[in-house]
Amino acid sequence: MPEQHLHEDVTARGHLIDSNILSNIMNGIVELDGTFEVLSLDIGRGNENPSTITMRVFGRSREHLSEILRTIHEFGVVPVHLEDVCLQPAPADGVFPEDFYSTTNLETYIRLAGQWRHVEGTEMDLGVRVDEVTQTATGVPISDVRKGDMFVVGQTGLRVVTQERAREKTEFEFMNSTVSSEKPKAQIVKQIASILREVHGDGRKTIVVAGPAIVHTGASAHLARIVRAGYVSVLFGGNAVATHDIEVALYGTSLGIDMQSGVAVPGGNEHHLRAINRIRAAGSIGDAVDRGVLTSGLMYTLVKTGTPYVLAGSIRDDGPLPDVITDVIEAQQAMRAWCREAGACIMLSTMLHSIAVGNMLPASVTTVCVDINPAAVTKLGDRGSMQTIGIVTDVGLFLQLLADELGC
pTM higher than 0.85 for the full model? Predict the structure, then answer.
């Protein structure tokens, strides 16, 4: 018998073996200096059959045991003896009750009045607000909390659905592991094009998160081709990607470098600010297109095709452009609405923006991160976006190949 005397009996069911869920549960317990005892283990006869485990988890104290249970909870572990969730009111606007349940990006259910209820709008780092009249549950960011709202606290009455390995081998099998720089790019691009076609055909949304590198590398023209073909539902970016795209359209330079010759232009360091000034004088990017001030580029294409975009501000911004949302909470809300409808997300050479969007995406969203820097992909995974597949390559080459593959 383990030395720790406090314990909780828990169970998990699913494809525990071939999806590495069982090993993750056991590792999670051991890494937190806990112990466990397997009470029963029913292994499915084949890879199509689920397995079930019941185990007793031991901790040194109630706090230690709670920490272990919180960790293994994200792998679909639930107590054997089910109880309804515990609810407490928010003590003030913008403040969760103490010991509030912090969500993961996995599909989540709560047990309310003896029934399992689906939590709408699940993403990382939210609280679960419960309307006891309508018996509904919703993921809510801390900025949206209002005094008196009822929130789930503790771990009882909660269940998450862990992402499992696909049961069938498909042309998307590469999605089961991170893509390295050594994988064949043409095959990867072909598979991503198939995903975009499937998402588009199903009427779901595809988000593109774009950094200024797509402009500096000359790739924005290829992304514009993909936009015109209808494969982009919304573009997320910052002030920089829009500014430098407009700079190219107005002055033929990006960061003052001539896009044709690759040579710095005298006075070119001012071009991005002059581009911002021209747009501000017009009123907005859309107004600049309507007035004939802006006649080419990615932002022009977005306006002409009616494709929405969300430009989120930063303290680093010059200007910024009038379309940039400078209130970060407002920008977050604008992006969150799209993230909850997404079927796919393509992140292009923007580490910080990609991490921000990754935090708002459900784990079920097919997410591809393209960056020349492998650290961009690693950091996404470290922050919980484990569904992200990384492609380590030049974004210009990737977008050209993708546009060609899509026949744009």
Answer: no
